[in-house]
Structures are given as C-alpha cells and as structure tokens.
Amino acid sequence: MRALVQRVRRASVRVVSADGSAETVGEISEGLCVLVGMTHTDREEDAKRLADKVWNLRVMPGGDRGMELAVADTTREILVVSQFTLYGDTSRGRRPSWVAAAPPEIAEPLYECFVAELRALGAHVQCGVFGASMEVELVNWGPVTLMLETGSSKRG
Question: Fewer CB within 10 Å: N-end or C-end of the chain?
C-alpha cells in the first residue's frame, strides 16, 4: 500500500456528481490529508501497519526540533481519500498505466480496513467516497509531504 501524507492547515473532499454539482463529504482542520492506494498483493496486515504508521508519524509541531509530535499525541484530524493513481506507471511513455493498481474488489476492503484501523487507534477521521469522482482541497502546512509504503510495494 502507498500513502501520500500531507500535513495540512485544513483539507476537504467533495464528491462530484455527473451534472457537475459537488457535495462536501469530509472536512478537517489541522492534521493530515492521506491519499491512499492499493496494489494487487496488499493484505489487511498492510492496511493496519500503514494506519499505525500514519497515526504515529511524528510530523506535527512540538518540541525543540519543530516536528516532534504525531497526530496520536494531539487533537488533530485525518482526512483519508482513496487514490488508485498512486500506482500509475509512466515508465513507458506519457500515458500512465494502471496495471499495478488493485481492482476495486481488492482495494475497497483494504481502504475500509485502513480507515477502521485509524479509528480504532483513536483517530478522528473524515473520508472521501471510494471510487467516486472527487475534488480534494487543502492547504499544505510546512509544506510537509511524505510517501509511505508497506507490503510488496515498499522500496528498500
């Protein structure tokens, strides 16, 4: 699994309908915006491990070094949005291939497991809608942006 994690001042996600109208389905103040993608070989253990990593990632301000705290140490929130394009491959040209992205029947349960594990850990979580056309709006704070990986997608 892959997660693109951004520390944000605020973030929201809106679902866009076929007629172009949009409805806000998730919104947070200071915290983390997490775009999460799954590949074919990911398992529930990967989702749980990634949730724990996000929950305990020390990127929040505090202490002498500026980034000493995790969301777990604060009252901040997490916005989670499914993002299959994290597994886009452009190594063979300009049109991305989505072959490495897990199909919805594999990805959606893993997405739900990731969100459920964050909540079980104590996180205040807002979410997008899996598979929907969405608009994500955020104010990156720092900026701080990190790519996290678990399972077979993890790079050395």
Answer: C
